[in-house]
Inverse folding.
C-alpha cells in the first residue's frame, strides 16, 4: 500500500511517466531533466547499497565500494527490511532479468 503522505495526483503522474520510459537512454534523458546529477547519483547509490546488503556485504565493504555513509547504509537497510518492499521487488526483478 502506498504511503498516504506521498500519494497524490502529481506523484501518480510522475510514476506513470516513468513507466512510459522504454530504454535506459530514455531514462537518462528524463531523469537528467527532472533531477540534479547529485539526486540521480544518490538514488543510484542507495540501490547499489541495497543490492550489496542483500548480497551479505559488510558496512565497511559497502562504504569502501560505494562511498555511502554508514547513516545512508543504515537507512537503506531499515527500508530493505521494514519498508514498503520496493527495494526487494526491484532487486529480485533485476536478478531475474540478468539471469
Amino acid at each position: 500500500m502506498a504511503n498516504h503522505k506521498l500519494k497524490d495526483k502529481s506523484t501518480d503522474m510522475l510514476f506513470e511517466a516513468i513507466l512510459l520510459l522504454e530504454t535506459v537512454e530514455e531514462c537518462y534523458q528524463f531523469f537528467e531533466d527532472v533531477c540534479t546529477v547529485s539526486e540521480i547519483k544518490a538514488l543510484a547509490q542507495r540501490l547499489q547499497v541495497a543490492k550489496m546488503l542483500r548480497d551479505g556485504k559488510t558496512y565497511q565493504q559497502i562504504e569502501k565500494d560505494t562511498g555511502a555513509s554508514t547513516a545512508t547504509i543504515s537507512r537503506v537497510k531499515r527500508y530493505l527490511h521494514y519498508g514498503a518492499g520496493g527495494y526487494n521487488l526491484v532487486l529480485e526483478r533485476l536478478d531475474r532479468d540478468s539471469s
